[in-house]
Design goal:
The protein is built from six helices and ten strands; from the N terminus they run βββαααββββαβαββα. The chain has 189 residues and is α+β, with helices and mostly antiparallel strands. Helix 1 packs across helix 3.
């Protein structure tokens, strides 16, 4: 798998995927502070100071090469410049050319295809630019919107682990959805 250095924003038809900046803190806080959004994330709702700390940390991550390298990108709607979500891509196992993808969007923009559009752009980076063999998403199966997104992207359910993670005071299941390079290429043909 080839290394990837994030140097310039990724344009799609309606979106701009770019590194986060301090100017994004309030927008990111607007969804990371919500209980209904954080229900499906690994963290509790965050205060503004915690969001600011994470934005600074994430903005410094610009390279995908080694295990655990990641990008956390801001998703901006180009028609009005509004920050509407975040996309995540991480190297899971460089030796096996495996990446992980994830997303979170403000609830008031769901149902418009923005997550699909942004995820397809990152899948293209993973498969076409980096030469990944497999990309997967790990999620709470109760998050039916994310499950449907995985299926729209051409991912298949690879695993459903029952009560494998103790999170926020309770046992949670984990679903894993994945897509291989050859499957991605068939979808693009």
């Amino acid at each position: 798998m080839r290394p990837f250095e994030f140097r310039e924003p990724i344009d799609t038809d309606r979106l701009l995927l770019r590194l986060e900046t301090d100017a994004d803190i309030d927008a990111i806080h607007s969804w990371q502070s919500r209980e209904d959004v954080c229900r499906y994330l690994l963290y509790e709702p965050r205060d503004r100071d915690t969001v600011a700390m994470k934005v600074a940390e994430d903005a410094a991550r610009t390279r995908l090469e080694h295990d655990h390298d990641y990008l956390q990108l801001a998703v901006e709607r180009t028609e009005d410049g509004r920050l509407i979500g975040q996309m995540y891509m991480a190297v899971d196992k460089a030796e096996y050319s495996t990446l992980e993808i994830g997303w979170v969007f403000h609830p008031d923009v769901t149902g418009n295809g923005y997550a699909s559009e942004a995820a397809r752009a990152l899948l293209a980076v993973g498969f076409e630019t980096m030469g990944a063999h497999r990309i997967f998403a790990s999620l709470t199966p109760e998050n039916t919107a994310s499950v449907r997104l995985c299926l729209r992207l051409g991912m298949r359910e690879e695993a459903h682990f029952v009560e494998d993670m103790f999170l926020k005071g309770r046992w949670e299941d984990t679903g894993v959805y994945g897509i291989l390079d050859r499957e991605w290429r068939e979808l693009q043909a």
